[in-house]
Amino acid sequence: MSGQHIHAEPTNFFRKHVFSVDHKVIAKQFLWFGLIWLGIGGVMAMMIRWQLANPGEPVPVIGSMLFPRTNGVLDPATYNTLFTMHGTIMIFLGLTPLMIGAIGNWSIPLMIGARDMIFPLLNCLSFWAMFLGGAVGFISLFVPLGATEAGWTGYPTLSTTINGVGSGETLWAIAVFLIGASSIMGGINYMTTVIRLRAPGMTWQRLPLTVWGIFLTSVLNVLFVPVIGSAMLLLIMDRVFGTTFFIPASIMQGAGGGDPILYQHLFWIFGHPEVYILILPAWGIIGDLLSFFSRKPAFGYRAQVGAMVAVTLLSAVVYGHHMFTTGLSAMLGESFMLLTMIISVPAEILFFNWLHTLWKGNLRLTTPMLFSMGVIFVFGLGGLTGIYLATIGTDIFLHDTYFVVGHFHLTMAASALFATFAGIYFWFPKMFAREMNEFLGKTHFWFTVIPLVTVFCLMFVMGYAGMPRRYYDHTSAEYLRSLQHLNKYATHAAFLLGAAQLVFVYNFIRSRWWGKPASQNPWEVGTLDWTMETPVPHYNFKEIPEVFTGPHEFSNPDIPDGKDWISMTEKLKA
Amino acid sequence: MNRINSLLAGVLSSRWMKALAVVGMAGVAEAQGGNRWAPFPPASDFGHRFSELFWLITILCSISMVIVVLLLLIPLLRDRARPGHKANYDHGSSLHDKRLTAVISLATFIVLDAWVLAIAMKDLREAYWNMPEVDQAETYPIEVLGQQWAWHFRGPGLDGEFGTPDDILEMNQLTIPKGRPVSFQMTSKDVIHSLFLPEMRTKKDVNPGSINKTWFKPIEAGEFTILCAELCGYAHYQMFGNLTVMEQEDFDEWEESASLLGIAAYDPEDEEAQWAWEWEE
């Protein structure tokens, strides 16, 4: 579009680095914000694992500092807070800002050839709304009468004042609401930008798969985040203003007459699309990166896009599989089971095409490539174990056991995290004009993937053996004592996994300031972001580029000068 | 359809499926000095269905995963970048590729999902959702009240009616007869709980404000486990109990004495103990 203005670069520190409207600065803000929260959520996970393997023993090193009242021992209330906040933080304050906020903000304008997002101010507002949400969430940990303890799902009536009298739960709901507002703002912005600001020649069928993934995620964000927003508002009203939307008459001495199951419907109407909100960008990113580093076109580009669109649509009609044991009617249960299983068709199309992209390629096993292939592996494990949970016959036993924990960590957590790491390693040279260390990157990959798969596959065994989730101590019930050895193994692997992330932190910090200066196009790919100079100039493109070829024209025999790649702005030989 | 069903039933009851389930469940347990890797064997009449379906899915998923890993490993070893090596220029957009995509996805769906779906539907109709008729004399009804953090159970006692002085009240302990369908109606006093009976292979949420139903038929006498599977607050992890399944003769004896004890201990002033409801048909 011709009407993209170029404003002068702000010189004021606040306008340039804090309340910036530049998508590149906002992307970096989201990146740092997300990484810090990822670290906090990760430390919480380590404490949870410590408690499970060594129930009632003081947490080493940080325990006495964080919990002086109990000499470093986690009490059940703190434990409940930890897994509640671990989930909330990892989903809303870790992966969402990293994948959608940072990678989305960075890649959309640069990849489609735009000077900025279409609503730069809304973009700035989106970050600061999330920042505020994070701040409220953080404060909620320290209020009198206790932080949230109702799980990241916050089911009433546990999350109403019947159980949690402290303001922590209310602040948690406010935090989720604010973060939701941020996601909606971002979603509207991303959708409009992709629809309106694509460079001439950047047709929908030339759009990089990364942009497709983030675009479809934005659609889901805009459609479904308002539903959890409404659930949170109703919950806040029940807690603060004495309404009874989710509180039945029987436990209110006859007054009111709400329904706790209503909340579960509202939560999962959002909650299931949320899984795809996190996984669609991951699919998009690896769809691109597998092609880039195989030096081969993305196999079945249109089939991949079609499959992602199909998943976007299907994600709206499968949420009931989270509620098979709540007493859903037989007809609803069976319908949700069938619909859930249908999702495996687009998923199989994606697997088929990813694996075919690698086949007979010329594989450059860089760190982003390793993480992309890692996504195929962990998502394969996670996706296949979804069949057990979609099938009511097996879900009745496995529901709310560690089987579920292993399943969703492999799908939405590990797959999304791996794609995020792939994206960070991939775009880092353009973002910070320096290269990350490849040796450390590969070390990080191998020391992440092996313990990670160990931890979550052990959880499948625990769940199969009947271990319920969200237990403070598995040694109190006789039935579970004979499973405690599995908890020990899982904790050892989890600590190794946690330690491996220090390699990433070191590599990231060192490369950010002292890394080798990056060339313009170190990966030799043709998308628009890599054709511009490094560091990216203010307002990206002086001239809006014109696009002539697709993003994945690798090893095309018609590439002019004997390279195996071509910039999207160049023409193939006639 | 019937023929397919009988075929499926044939495969599931075949010797190798059973053997596999036994290996899976017997669970290496004893050999490992009390450490187990599998659930205890099922003690309800539909309990074996879980293990059979579980291991069927496991076989199908393992085959799929092996294929995925092979398709990752072969290019990883064979197609690494090296001087003089070129990638195959292929967009995978030919009609042949599209057909292949469609055929493989649909075939996987049929083998992986449709098969499992058919068995699951059969299991649901025949077992999990096939609630016993309550007016049948042999069905034993139980009312359950969950609270933070205890399980309350109410048996109808000798008169077979709930809400009468001879009701049998138990806490964190449930006693039922072997070989008869046991029918549960459940609600909660405060937050959502979930009645999880791992050896019976069943689980159902216990919601405040409404009555949820479930059932099973115990086929082994002995002591079993009751757990809470839905996060219910501070002492969620301590909300467990004991399930005793008695032979019919022992149960009759126990029921009579427990019911008489109930009458002796009955206190109409004790409001906490009056939580029974009329059994819903």
Note the topology.
The complex is a heterodimer of chains A (574) and B (281).
Chain A: H1 13-18, H2 23-53, H3 63-66, H4 76-112, H5 120-139, H6 168-196, H7 209-240, H8 260-294, H9 301-314, H10 330-342, H11 344-358, H12 367-390, H13 392-398, H14 402-432, H15 438-464, H16 478-481, H17 484-514, H18 528-531
Chain B: H1 2-12, H2 15-26, H3 47-78, H4 95-128, E1 140-147, E2 150-155, E3 168-171, E4 173-177, E5 182-188, E6 193-197, E7 202-206, E8 212-216, E9 222-228, E10 241-246, H5 248-265
Parallel strand pairs in B: 1-5, 4-10
Antiparallel strand pairs in B: 1-2, 2-3, 5-8, 6-7, 6-9, 9-10
Helix pairs in contact in B: 2-3, 3-4
Describe what you observe in this structure.
Chain A is mostly helical and 574 residues long. Chain A has one domain: Cytochrome c oxidase-like, subunit I domain (Cytochrome C Oxidase, Chain A, Up-down Bundle), CATH 1.20.210. Chain B folds into two domains: 109 residues, no CATH class; 134 residues, Cupredoxins -  blue copper proteins (Immunoglobulin-like). The model of chain B has no long low-confidence stretch (mean pLDDT 88). Chain B has five helices and ten strands; from the N terminus they run ααααββββββββββα. The longest helix of chain B is centred in the middle third of the chain and has 34 residues. By secondary structure, chain B is of the alpha+beta class. Chain B is 38% helix and 21% strand. Chains A and B meet through helix 4, helix 8, helix 9, helix 10 and helix 11 of A and helix 3, helix 4, strand 7 and strand 9 of B.
Query: What's the CATH topology label of the largest domain in chain B?
Result: Immunoglobulin-like
| Inertia-based shape of chain A | globular
CATH superfamily of the largest domain in chain B, please?
A: Cupredoxins -  blue copper proteins
* Fraction of helical residues of chain A: 55-70%
Low-confidence stretches of chain B: none
Structural class of chain B: alpha+beta
Terminus-to-terminus distance of chain B: 32 Å
Q: What is the level 1 CATH name of chain A?
A: Mainly Alpha
Helix coverage percent of chain B? 25-40%
C-alpha end-to-end distance of chain A: 28 Å
What are the secondary-structure elements of chain B, in order, as H or E? HHHHEEEEEEEEEEH
Order of helices and strands of chain A: HHHHHHHHHHHHHHHHHH
Which structural class do you get from the secondary structure elements of chain A? Answer: mainly alpha
What integer value in Å does the Rg of chain A equal?
24 Å
The top-level CATH class of the largest domain in chain B is Mainly Beta
Q: How many structural domains in the coordinates of chain A?
A: 1
Number of strands of chain B: 10
Total count of helical runs of at least 4 residues of chain A: 18
| Poorly predicted runs of 5 or more residues of chain A | none
Biggest sheet: strand arrangement of chain B: 3-2-1-5-8
Strand content of chain B: 15-25%
